[in-house]
Amino acid sequence: MKTIAVIGGGITGVTTAYALARRGFSVTLFEKQRYAAMETSFANGGQLSASNAEVWTHWSTIVKGLKWMLKSDAPLLLNPKPSWHKVSWFAQFLAAIPHYEKNTVETARLAVAAREHLFSWAEQEGIDFDLKKQGILHIYRDRAGFEHAGRVSQLLAQGGLERRAVTPEEMHAIEPTLSGN
């Protein structure tokens, strides 16, 4: 029997170890934290969501990234000190921009399939967890962001994920604690 080591006990590491064990491999999972899912998976709040499948390889990400470099709470931090690794990574990022639409559609397909796979596993194994299938409310504060989201929704729909725009009234019905305009 082949033995495989999986490093990292987040959602990806645990599900990878599980899938390999189901295929008959002997699997050892290594996690440096005291508990599983205490790093990246923890920061993502345990979402089994496909609605954020838009890839980042878009010109708007570069503009946002430049603005974020000046913020301490940015969702993406990049040290501006050059290195071969960063230059190489950035070149690959730029080379992927022409494939943004195709990659977003394919990422949505993969995300939908992965989510359904996880739901199936949970059902097969009798795992009951705090699953909510209410969706995610994305809020846009300007017309440009809302219109971009509409174009993204069309791409995600091609990948099998339906999203829809809601009115401010529907937003308050979905999430009554929202305030403001």
Q: What this model shows, in words?
A:
By secondary structure, the protein is mainly alpha-helical. The chain is 49% helix and 6% strand. The chain is built from 7 helices and 2 strands. The protein has helices at residues 11-22, 40-43, 59-68, 84-96, 100-125, 143-158, 168-174; strands at residues 3-7, 26-30. It has a two-stranded parallel sheet with strand order 1-2. Helix 5 (100-125) crosses helix 6. It is globular and about 55 Å long. It starts with a strand and ends in a 7-residue tail after the last helix.
| Multimeric state | single chain
CA-atom Rg in angstroms: 19 Å
Mean pLDDT: 90
Strand content: 5-15%
Give the SSE order as H and E letters. EHEHHHHHH
Class from helix and strand fractions: mainly alpha
Main attributes?
single chain; 181 residues; mainly alpha; two-stranded parallel sheet; 7 helices; globular
Task: Map the helices and strands.
Elements: E1 3-7, H1 11-22, E2 26-30, H2 40-43, H3 59-68, H4 84-96, H5 100-125, H6 143-158, H7 168-174
Helix pairs in contact: 5-6
Provide a compact summary of the structure.
This protein is mainly α.
